[in-house]
Amino acid sequence: MISSRWKKVWSDFWSNRGRTLLTIVTIAVGTFAVGFNSNLGLYMNESMDGDYLSANPSEAEVYASDLDDASVKMAREIPGVEAVEGTSSVSARIVHTDGTMVQIIFIAAEDPADLTLNYLKPAPDDLSIPVYGDKETIIDLSAVSLGYEPGDMILVELGDGKQREVKLAGYMHAVTGIPYNLAQQVYAYVTPDTLEWLGGTTDGYDRLSISVAEKQTDAEHVTAVAQAVADKLERAGSTVFFVSVYQPGHHFAYSITQGVFFVLGILGYLTVLLSGFLIVNTITALMTQQTRQIGIMKATGGSGVQIFFMYMTLIVAFGIGALLLAVPLANAAATNIGGGMATWLNFFAAPYKGYGTTIIQQVLVAIVIPLLAALLPIYNSVRITVREALSDYGLGGNAKAKEETTHQNSVLIPRPIRISLRNTFRRKTRLGLTLFTLVLGGAVFIAVYNLWASFDKTIEDIQGYFLADINISFDRGYRFDKVASIAQSIPGVVSAEGWLEYTGTVEMNDDDAGTQILFVAPPSTSILIDPIITSGRWLEQGDENAIVIGNHLLQVYPDLKVGDSLTIDIDGKKTEWTIVGTYSITGNVSPPLLYVNYEYLSVLVGEPEMAYSLRIITDPHDSATQGRINDQIQAAFKQRGIQIQSTQLGADFIRDQKAQTDILVYFMLVMATLIAIVGGLGLMGTMSINVLERTREIGVMRAIGASNGDIQAIVITEGMVIGLLSWAISILISVPITNVLCYGVGMAILTAPMPVVYGATGVIAWLIFTIVLGTLASALPARRASRLTVRDTLAYE
Fold it and tell me: How wide is the angle at C-alpha 257 spanned by C-alphas 254 and 261, nearest 5°?
């Protein structure tokens, strides 16, 4: 037999289903947000690390010439080296039937099972890696979007312009590589004989993959070991081009995803904070409404402790309902979105099994936090005496009467609107809590839109270092006047500049292993670079050993400043440079880029008047024109025997960068929308309480002739006033939140703060959202108010 007090709890839970549903949904939104973020982070980290580490990845790569088995043996003898593997490769381009081209890297491996580092894995539907023979290849699964099926012939163009057809034997999974959708480059494996047929060589290696014996995730340690290998190779006669160490021991997307999860986690707990305020609002109104019932229970023998735990049990029931709703939704969202992100980032998703730490967080959010939020309102209510409770007039009954005066100008405002404005500010504490949730939700929403604009501005700033419409890289140096004249003979080409890129090693002292850098040398008269100078100046005509360093080298050597000297090893020769300026570029740039004048560097390295890349301006600058001219230039170079390594269109660069950043922003917009939804639920709850509080007042208005439309207009106008007031305040609060987001997201994802942009898009979007939200949140309470009869309202207690 259920006792009367638990019947009372059930009645409170079930009889007012609208209030119960609103409370459960409010708690569930925060519970879902926290659960989704936690599940997604744990699921992706487990899948990413599990798949990546199972491939026995290398922590560093050394790119050099004249490498052979003796070089591999020599590298293995360096202290700290665990394993070394040499690979040979050759670049080519896939020629589609529509004439477009895609960069492809062919790597020689007689049998993938013989690889000791960077293992390959079968595609999900295959039991083993496809066997490939002469003139056959297997390619990474991330390139399946190109549309090739096993058995298809792939037409490729070699560096010398010759074309070959290779048969696709099937797909494999190369988790240690960057996927095609991000790099716009395909990784493929062929036999050594096929590599030679494609223009490569198997007499030696062009890359050494290195695994260290300890501290695999310590970038400084790995860099020191890799640089020691490079130094020994150079002393043995090899020419080292580049040493690559990027997030050793982790998938290439690890740091980016951790930054995203951190930001999403903060937004998720902001949702919980807002939910807590709404619970306070709801429970306060509930306890005020039930003051007389509390008095009756006390008069019939109920103790304060019993009544206290009755209402705390009701809160637990709300929390359990929220858990039942949020937990499966959070699991489903994490499974589906995590699987999609795994495909996008090129790792296999592990079987989803749920996470105990997430369940604990969700229980805390759904039950413990609501209990803490409701503790004070319930405690204050159960302390009331029987006399005070039975003399209470219910919601709004204790409000002090005010002497109302009418300003002479207020008569110009229609009476229903005056009533709405008066009602809006009647309960200032409740209004404050409601405004807090709406303002914070709106501020975060606007700030995320500003962050989106900041990403776009960041891409524009990055493009300032690559202003050309078409960037063409050659596999070796060509006379600039020759390649420029060929390019400028194409209709639509306005101008062309020859640039030089060259590797070097910064050496700060005898004990320092050195830091690999890449010289980028534009002409001193270049108009195709617009850097962001943070100190000093940019390069000028006549500068010789002047150099401009960037924020990525400053992360390695933070004490460097304008006026300091740098010693840089170039092909075994020590060269001295003077820092004349520093620049900033966001993003993960490896190795650090150092800018010098082309005229000086080309002579220094013995390549005067030679260009390793050509940067071209077209007219007009649209994507279609760039693509057409690019095809014509490639055909002209091919006809004259000039070998192109790769091409990049400016329009494609912007499109690809935006596609990547937009996905990050979409995640944040989802969380910002959840926060906005909590604010909307708060407004709906506030309006419902306000209508309930003024039940008798509505009856009086009905008795003197107010229509359904008048009642609805008063309630909806009140909701709109609260919404618009929160919108105006949100604009101001979004400014510091935007600053924090741009700095935090920039440092977490792009290694440098992003430029702050305050755009109108988010303000307008939130205004529209607020109008719609205010209308919808007020519509149901307004409809309920308009359906009340005079008899019902005057009989209400």
Answer: 135
